[in-house]
């Protein structure tokens, strides 16, 4: 048997998308939200001497009128707001130095404060603390007691039960049995085995209900009020105006820096007879032009997607119950002749400002459930609203079971399984029927 090897040349044409660095950066810029884009542009301006950032922030009438009216610093209340926030640790240290004398016990208090976490809980065992400091168990307990007398109420607790007890202890408006019920029957209360508690303390179930409702007003993390609130503000990318039943979608450029080219600096550098300088300045010019073009493309893409979303969801903006029709990323992508992933990047973390609130663009997308009677589809968000409405209007003494919700939805031509109702209920943060039952009805 002979084995022969034949060599031949073939020419093939293959179409491939080359992911250049600039293309990757363009995709990333589309994915950025407003704050991330701002930070990216500021970084680029530091790297490129040809980029000059001009602030695009417009002062509100309130700000300008305030500056005219309150010329006296003592009466300008906006100036009284501190520019930095005190941390929980600093707040506790200030109270300790203010309220407690310089004694050995205060030294132990200062030691324990080092182990208070951001939620206000003590993270070190008292026995371990005693070993590290050489103090007795009683001395460490006394030190902890002093911490637990500080503000905010509940600070220095070693667990949730103790945290709630510390808050109840200081509240004169707390129900009479609240403290002792939390202290002795915390697990029964949490697991809603209230008849056992009522029998033990010889009270009505409605009294236990009041205690449970009161506990809902307490905070499980007293230190959380000291967390920074920066980054919680949303800068909408789009704004809508509704007039005469017509909706106009606008790009929101307020707060976004405006790129300007440093023409004078560029011309001075061009006059320098040095090839490296010439190459460098041309590279930075190209970078400026690319960045300016990419930012414009990003804004145009978000605006196009936003307009199509608004066009498809007209009822949401005109009807009080804010209904949504089923709509997918693919449908918008096909209409606009762009890739589905582009639509996804254009709606994630991007927000639409309306006269009745601010909404993430992604929230307008939902799959549909078939409606047997009409043949049309009902969006999952609409089903969730129906479910929420049923729970809101139920008899709290006899809450609706998931199966009962299925039956009631079917009467509204919404045919879904009990498992789906359970999934939607949990997604909405609605407890099961046994945990929704109230005893004060």
Automatic annotation (TrEMBL):
Residues 80-265 form the RNA polymerase sigma factor 54 core-binding domain. Keywords: DNA-binding, DNA-directed RNA polymerase, Nucleotidyltransferase, Sigma factor, Transcription, Transcription regulation, Transferase. It comes from the Bacteria. Residues 279-438 form the RNA polymerase sigma factor 54 DNA-binding domain. Signal peptide: none annotated. Belongs to the sigma-54 factor family. This is RNA polymerase sigma-54 factor. The lineage of its organism: Bacteria, Bacillati, Bacillota, Bacilli, Lactobacillales.
